[in-house]
Fold these 3 entries.
Entry 1:
Amino acid sequence: MIRKCLFPVAGYGTRFLPATKSMPKEMLPVVNKPLVQYGVEEAIEAGMNNCAFVTGRGKRAIADHFDISYELEHQIAGSNKESLLSSIREVIDQGVFTMVRQREMLGLGHAVLSGEPLIGPEPFGMVLSDDLCVNPDGPGVLAQMAELFRQFRCSIVAVQEVPAAEIHKYGVIAGESLREGLYRVERMVEKPTADEAPSNLAIIGRYILTPDIFDIIRDTAPGASGEIQITDALQRQARDGCVMAYKFAGQRFDCGSVPGFVEATNHVYEHMYGR
């Protein structure tokens, strides 16, 4: 039922300077695969084969990654290195990739609105590539959320418990528990202090959004940091309709931070090589 997934990838990646001065942070490799490819593979697994990227200046490498490189493939054709391209070839064969530019960095809500021409009037997934999510024992996070959408037909955010010392980095939810790991959202707060946080359930970079979110964002005033926050739009959607929060199965790594990126690299390496 959900065919499209939005990837806001226009950010500057300042926490990884100088590495991201001329390279998109989404192209940073976790072992031998860029962050954004993990997210695209998760979307395709969930049936969201139409991947829409909201990009910015200096992000051409992302578009190039999801395209055929004739020169490279000609050079390594028939060699033992050819197999190293198998994973990205599968992604390219299965996916459809579209791009639009976000001309100004005015917040995640603005990035979502910039992607409206690529999404249209239908529900869609959204992946923030900074968050690498793995679930070796079952379906990926987006696939889990897509299954929930079939039941509830409303926007869904992925959440996880975070320590009080980290809560100020996230949007935080509070709501009615419907069953283990599933909540009907009543309140959302963007980047609260530990004392202001309504719970320890923080929103991470996986969403399913219904298309009315675009009109809501258009009517949303700038919030925290003077940016248009998706959390503020979702708060209104929760008040006027329904938003669910889902405590997903699996593990999430904050690859927007250096410690999280190193932790993710170690985890993937150990999984690949059994060390």
Entry 2:
Amino acid sequence: MVGRGRRRIKCKNCGYEWMPNEVQPLKTWHLISPMPDKQGRITVTVMAVWECPKCGSRVRGVMAKTKIGEESFRGQNRTQKLIKILSESKRVSLEELAKHFNTDIRTIRMAIEYLLKKGMIRGAIKGSFFVSAN
């Protein structure tokens, strides 16, 4: 979680509170920030819908946030590493990239789509692979 720490989920109907990982969500989805922050990182927010354990009403909230492109130990951030891998490979599996960056395939797919949209890389996602246009 990015920021000061995880926030509790609060039911608007009865006021019951719980941590996001204490109750199994009914549904989850990802949101990507439209603009990177000052350091060039992209924020990916995982949203969820839970059923309140006390009253049964549905509650929507943030399950987790991660930033793609945080500085790592070698001096290149994750976004730069992803761009380098994609530009040097003719064809690369999204699953392999997800394992390499310790994230899920949907996050990698969204990051690649963002880089393609911004013109930072050339190529296309075909099935479960990224195919370079180089």
Entry 3:
Amino acid sequence: MKKTLVIGASDNPSRYSYLAVQRLSSKGFPVYALGRHPGKINGIEIDTGTPSYPDVHTVTLYINPSNQKELYEYLTGLNPTRVIFNPGTENPDLAALLQSKGVETIAACTLVMLGTGQY
């Protein structure tokens, strides 16, 4: 299964990042959650800072482009296979940087991809 890191995770059930962590987990995907504030989503710890995660296949972003700049080096250092830019997170500069490192970038909705079996 594709290990997934959700960046912008929140323990607020009305946030899409919360739903993404919940649905990824319920479908059996190993999931890491990274947010501004610590918390839990169905027993999954929300980490803060820039922790190291082994073998991340997919990063799915739930932070706006202005907050992504501080994570460019971190994201490339994770060496993911793909990064999903959810609606409102699209960032051509980051996408180009990731693509130059061989990372697939997708502008899509993680929740829709999960719901339609495209994940």
